[in-house]
Amino acid sequence: GQSLEQPSEVTAVEGAIVQINCTYQTSGFYGLSWYQQHDGGAPTFLSYNALDGLEETGRFSSFLSRSDSYGYLLLQELQMKDSASYFCAVRGGYQKVTFGTGTKLQVIP
Amino acid sequence: GAVVSQHPSRVICKSGTSVKIECRSLDFQATTMFWYRQFPKQSLMLMATSNEGSKATYEQGVEKDKFLINHASLTLSTLTVTSAHPEDSSFYICSARKTGGSYNEQFFGPGTRLTVL
Fold this sequence. Notes:
The structure holds two protein chains of two kinds.
Chain A: E1 3-5, E2 9-13, E3 18-25, E4 31-37, E5 44-49, E6 53-57, E7 60-65, E8 70-75, E9 84-91, E10 97-99, E11 103-108
Parallel strand pairs in A: 2-11
Antiparallel strand pairs in A: 1-3, 3-8, 4-5, 4-9, 6-7, 7-8, 9-10, 9-11
Chain B: E1 4-7, E2 10-13, E3 19-25, E4 32-38, E5 44-51, E6 57-58, E7 67-73, E8 76-81, E9 90-97, E10 107-108, E11 112-116
Parallel strand pairs in B: 2-11
Antiparallel strand pairs in B: 1-3, 3-8, 4-5, 4-9, 5-6, 7-8, 9-10, 9-11
């Protein structure tokens, strides 16, 4: 089976940097994705890591260590609009994506 | 591009009735679509994988006779909740993968909030 764990809540100050961790246990692994979801809205794709290392996309970066079954999402220059839930997700076999428990990020002034 | 729509956005129904939710990829073809449900403040739980022209693949614990999925075209998948009960009340979200596109990216619909009285 698949299981992914994330912190349930994180609070950070506007303009700061925040890291959201994700550890996973999976029977098959092709890559780790990150999604953002605002309250009442649909998830939106942020990033994907198939190989170890850091992927940077603007203010957001995502890191993967396959040997440690661990990844993180790094958000820089936090803005109030970044307040949302963030989910890591593992792509396993048959295109199946399993989502983590989600981390609710609150950005405060 | 890569817009996915769902209809209806909200539905309230009486216990025992059936509800159909549509998921459409508006500007791309999607051989594969996925159906999720999400309870308040919880993660998305995959219910089934819908493949155009073939039977859906259901996750363990999801009753295929209760949650009927039809993927009759490359742009439309439907989920019918049959004989709905209050415990079926949830946020149902579909996603679609572009035909021939990356396996890594799914495009999500806006979701359908189902309330069963």
